[in-house]
C-alpha cells in the first residue's frame, strides 16, 4: 500500500526532519570543535609563575626522536627509568633495527650483569634507597612526564638551570622548578648561567641570563638538543599518537562517505511521497 500524504503535510514533515538533522549536525560540530581547535594560551609553570617556552616539537620526525633517544639514554637514564617503554618497541617506532638499538642505545645491565636485552623495559640499576640518599628524592620515572608536566614545562625546565650560591650541595637551582633536587646534568653542553632580574619586591622580574661559563654548544645547538629530548619524552608518553590520528582521519572519511550515501538514500525514500 502506498502512503499518501497531503503535500502541505509532507512539506512540514520534511522541514521538521531537515531542521532536526541540521540541529544535530550543528551540535556535533559544536561538541567536536574544541577537539580540533587547540586554543593556545600562554602557559605558566605551576607554582613558580615562570612563563614557559614552546619548542617546535615534531614527533613524526624520526631523526629528531633518534637524537632525543640517544641523548636520553646517555644523559638521563643513569638516574631516571622509563618503565613503560621497551627497547624493541623503540626500535620499531623510531625506524631502527634491534641491533642498532642494542649496540648504540643500551648501556645498562640486567640483574645477572648481562647487557640488558632489547625486549626489556627501559629501566636502570639505581635503587630507590640510593636515589633517596643521593638526592633526597627518588628520580622519577619519566615515561609519562610529557603528559603530567607538558612539553613546554620539560623544555623550559631543561633550559633554566642556573648557579645559585644560596643552595648548599649542588649549588644549582631552576627557574621553572625552584628547589629541584636534580643537578644540571647538561652543564657541559649549556655552560653555567645566572639569571638577571630587574625591579624590586613584587616588581622584580626575570629579564634574561648572563653566561658565567661557556658550554660546548651554542645556544641554538643546546635548544635543538633539548627540543629533541623533549620530543622523545613526548613520544614515550604517547607512542601510538600517529596511529590514532591516522585511524581518526579514516573514521572522518568514512562518516563523510556515509553522509553522501545517506543523503541519496533519503532522496530515494522520499521521492514518491509528494
Ligand atoms: C644525577 C641524576 C639525574 C640525572 C642524570 C637526570 N635527572 Fe632528572 N631528576 C633527578 C631528580 C633527583 C629529580 C627530582 C627532582 C625533584 O623533585 O626535586 C629529577 C626530576 C626531573 C624532572 C621533573 C619530573 C617531575 O615531574 O617532577 C624532569 C622532567 C627530569 N628530571 C628530566 C631529566 C632529563 C630530561 C634528564 C636527562 C637530560 C635528566 N632528568 C637527568 C635526577 C636526575
Textual characterization of the structure:
This protein is mainly alpha-helical and 274 residues long. It has a domain at 62-239: Cytochrome c-like domain (Cytochrome Bc1 Complex, Chain D, domain 2, Orthogonal Bundle). The protein is 49% helix and 11% strand. The protein is built from ten helices and six strands; from the N terminus they run ααβααβαααββαββαα. The protein has helices at 7-36, 62-76, 87-94, 98-104, 128-135, 145-148, 151-159, 187-190, 219-237, 241-270; strands spanning 82-86, 121-122, 161-163, 172-174, 191-198, 205-214. It has a two-stranded antiparallel ribbon with strand order 1-2. Strand 3 and strand 4 (172-174) form a beta hairpin. Helix 2 packs across helix 9 (219-237). The longest helix is centred in the N-terminal third of the chain and has 30 residues, at 7-36. The chain is elongated and about 90 Å long. The model has no long low-confidence stretch (mean pLDDT 87).
CATH architecture of the domain at 62-239: Orthogonal Bundle
> What is the molecular shape?
elongated
- Give the topology string: H per helix, E per strand: HHEHHEHHHEEHEEHH
The SS-based structural class is mainly alpha
The main β sheet shows up as: 2 strands, antiparallel
Distance between the termini: 15 Å
Residues in helices, as a percent range: 40-55%
Spatial order of strands in the largest sheet: 1-2
The CATH homologous superfamily of the domain at 62-239: Cytochrome c-like domain
Beta-strand percentage?
5-15%
Q: What does the radius of gyration come to?
A: 28 Å
Low-pLDDT parts are: none
